[in-house]
Amino acid sequence: MNAKSPGQPPMRRFSLGLQHVLAMYAGAVIVPLIVGSALKLSPEQLAYLVSIDLLTCGIATLLQVWSNRFFGIGLPVVLGCTFTAVGPMIAIGSQHGISTVYGAILAAGLFVVIFAGLFGKLIRFFPPVVTGSVVTIIGLTLIPVALNDMGGGVGNPNFGAPVNLLLSFGVLALIIAMNRFFTGFWRAISILLGLIVGTLVAALLGRVSFAPFHEASWFHMVHPLYFGMPTFEITSVLTMILVAAVSLVESTGVFLALGKICDRDIRSEDLTRGYRAEGLAIILGGLFNAFPYTTYSQNVGLIQMSGVRTRDVIMTAGGILIVLGLIPKVAALTTLIPTPVLGGATVAMFGMVVSSGIRMLGSQVDLNNHENLLIIACSVGMGLGVTVVPTLFNQLPQAVQILTGNGIVAGSFTAIVLNLVFNLRRKRSVADASQPQGAAN
User: Fold this and answer.
1) If we measure between CA atoms, which residue out of 51, 83, 64 comes closest to residue 290?
2) CA distance 300 to 297
3) pLDDT computed for residue 439 by the predictor
4) How far lies 207's CA from each of 50, 326, 340, in Å?
5) What one-character DSSP code corresponds to residue 396?
6) What burial letters (b/e) apply to 169-206, b meaning 16+ CB within 10 Å?
7) Quick one: pLDDT at residue 3?
8) pLDDT category, 440, cuts 50, 70, 90?
9) What is the pLDDT of residues 292-335, one digit of tens each?
10) Between 69 and 186, whose confidence is greater?
11) Neighbours of 2 (CB within 10 A)
12) What is the sign of the dihedral through the CA atoms of 422, 428, 434 and 438?
C-alpha cells in the first residue's frame, strides 16, 4: 500500500490511527509538562498547555498530510512539538517571560514559511557535523532540568528527599527494563507507561492531588494568545529560528525516508511544500500558545513495522488528537504527574537527545578528520560553557551578547562558523587540485 492507495475500513482505520497517537503521545504530552513546570505555570495553565498542544499537533499533522500546490508534502507523517525547542523555551521564558517565547515562535514560523523555497540551498550550512553538535548541545543543557525534577523541583523544601529519589529512580528503572525486555509497540510507549505507573505509585503514597482533574471541564474552545500578546526580543528570535532550522534538517531526513517507504520520488518542490506546512504549524503554535512543530520520526518506524502507508490513517490520527485537545479532563490527567516522576522519565529522554546527537556525529561524520573533531570540541565546549557560566560575556556590548548570551546559540554559531572556515578552505583546496596544470595559459 502506498500513500495514495484506497483507504482502510473505518474500525481498522481508527485503530491504526489510535496506534499512531499512542506512539507519539508521550512525546506530545511531556514537552508541555516539562516547559510548564519549569516556567512555574499554575495547574489550570498547565492543563490548557497540554490540551492546546494535542489539538495543534492534530491540526499540524493535517496541514502536512493534506497536500496542495502551496503547502503539505502529502506523505503519511505525524507532527508533534520538537524536543529541540524545550531548552530554548525554558531559557527564554525564564529570562524574558512566556510572552517572549511565543513572539520567538511566531517569528521562527514566519521565517520558515518565507524562506521555505530557499531552505534547500541553506541546508548546506547545516551538515551532520553542525546538526549533530547542535542536538548534542541542546540535550546537555536539558540534563540539569531533569535532575532538578528528580529531586522534587527547584525551590522545593524537600528537595532530594528519599521518597522523591525513590519515585524518580523507580520510573527510570521501569523505562530501562521495558527497553531491555520488550520490543516494538511496548518499547515505544515505555516513557508513557513509566509516567502512568510512577503516578499511580505516588498516588498510593498520597503525593498526588486530583483537584485539577475534578475542576477541569469536559469541553473547551480554543483561546488564541491565552498567555497574552507576544513580545519580541532579538536573541530569543534568533534562538528559535535556529531551532526551526535544525528541525527542518531532521524533517528532511524523515521526508526522504518516507518517500522510499512509500515508493515516491521526493522532489525539491515537495520538500518546499513540506517546509512551508511545518512553518505554518509553527505559526499556529505561536498563535495558540502551544509549541514549534516538527515531523516525528517514531511514527515512521511504526509505518514501516505495520506496512500501512495510507494517508487516511494519519488523517484519522490527526482527528483523534484534535478531539483529545478539546477535552480538558484528558489534559488534566497528565498534569497529575508529580515532579519526581517526571524527572525520572525526562532524564532518560534528555539523555536520548544527547545520544541522538552523538549518533548523528558517529554515523554521519568522519571522526578521523581532525577538523571535524575541532568543530565538535569547540562548539560543544562553548555551548556547555556558556550554559554553566552564563555571566562570562556580560560585559560585552549588547549586540555581541545576541550570539553569546545563550549556550545553544553560542555553541551553534561556533559550529556554523568553524564549519564554514574549514569547509571553504577544503573546497578551495580541492578546486585548486583539480585545476589542470597550465590551464590558465
Assistant:
1) 51
2) 5
3) 43
4) 21, 28, 10
5) S
6) ebbbebbeebeeeeeeeeebbbbbbbbbbbbebbeeee
7) 47
8) very low
9) 988 876 666 567 655 667 788 889 989 989 988 888 787 677 66
10) 69
11) 13
12) negative
pLDDT value, residue 384: 87
Nine cell digits for residue 258: 518516507
Tell me the residue ranges of DSSP E strands in 51-120: 79-81
- How many Cα atoms sit within 13 Å of 84 on the Cβ side? 31
Closest CA to 348 of 203, 181, 244, 193: 193
Q: What is the mean pLDDT of residues 185-214?
A: 79
Of 34, 157, 149, 131, nearest in space to 91 by CA: 34
Grid cell in block for residue 269: 518542490
Please list, in sequence order, all residues whose beta carbon lies within 8 angstroms of the beta carbon of residue 176, skipping any fewer than 6 positions away.
348
Residue given cell 553560542 in the structure block: 410
The Cα–Cα gap between 23 and 189 comes to: 6
Q: Report residue 231's pLDDT band, with 50, 70 and 90 as the boundaries.
A: very high
Candidates 268, 306, 287; CA nearest to 188 is 306
Query: Which stretches of 151-233 are DSSP H helices?
Result: 162-181, 184-188, 190-204, 211-215
Taking residues 417-432, report their average pLDDT: 70
Least confident of 70-74, 107-111, 332-336: 332-336
Q: Is 398 exposed, middle or buried (0-12, 13-18, 19+ CB in 10 A)?
A: exposed
DSSP string, 289-339: T---EEE-THHHHHHHHH----HHHHHHHHHHHHHHHT-HHHHHHHTTS-H
DSSP three-state, residue 343:
helix
